[in-house]
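RECORD TYPE: inverse folding
INPUT: structure tokens
STRUCTURE:
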């Protein structure tokens, strides 16, 4: 993430100056601390000046030698961190976008699930109504068939009953005729029959 108004070269220079200042204070403190107090003398001696000068020359030499690699190192490090931050921002945006997509898909799946359940309920109700109608139709057909069978059986029973009654009536009539017919009635019936045949 870049800070507006500050270039990367300015950042590098600032960091290098800060490091140099810290090292300078550290080594100057060491040089001053190693002055003549340890040997029992007080104050600044000529060897201390040479030591400080040696340190300054060494420090400046190291500074000029290591300035470019250190600045490159810190520049590369800063660039790497900026790249990582940029990549993380991109990943964050992508993750938010994917989260939005997945949330939309979840909502859509919820709606599709409800639609599928509603479709199954509707199909179940339609199947129930169709089965009930078919059952009513079959029941009506069975009732009609039973009614026809009953009517047929009743008619057959009536015919058998009529035949039995007729047979018994004929038998009874024959008995009556045999018992009550005389020879004269017999002759008269034969004559009437012959007249009808001849005519």
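DESIGNED SEQUENCE:
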């Amino acid at each position: 993430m870049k800070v507006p108004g500050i270039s990367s070269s300015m950042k590098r220079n600032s960091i290098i100056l800060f490091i140099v200042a810290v090292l300078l204070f550290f080594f100057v403190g060491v040089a001053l601390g190693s002055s003549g107090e340890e040997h029992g003398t007080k104050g600044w001696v000529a060897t201390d000046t040479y030591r400080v000068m040696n340190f300054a020359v060494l420090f400046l030499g190291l500074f000029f030698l290591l300035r470019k690699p250190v600045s490159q190192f810190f520049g590369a490090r800063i660039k790497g961190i900026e790249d990582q931050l940029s990549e993380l921002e991109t990943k964050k945006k992508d993750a938010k976008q994917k989260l939005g997509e997945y949330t939309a898909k979840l909502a859509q799946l919820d709606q599709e699930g409800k639609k599928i359940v509603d479709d199954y309920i509707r199909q179940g109700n339609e199947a129930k109504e169709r089965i009930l109608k078919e059952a009513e139709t079959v029941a009506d057909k069975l009732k009609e068939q039973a009614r026809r069978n009953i009517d047929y059986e009743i008619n057959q029973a009536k015919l058998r009953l009529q035949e039995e009654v007729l047979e018994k009536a004929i038998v009874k009539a024959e008995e009556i005729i045999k018992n009550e017919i005389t020879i004269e009635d017999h002759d008269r019936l034969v004559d009437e029959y012959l007249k009808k045949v001849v005519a």
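NOTES: The first helix runs from residue 8 to 33.
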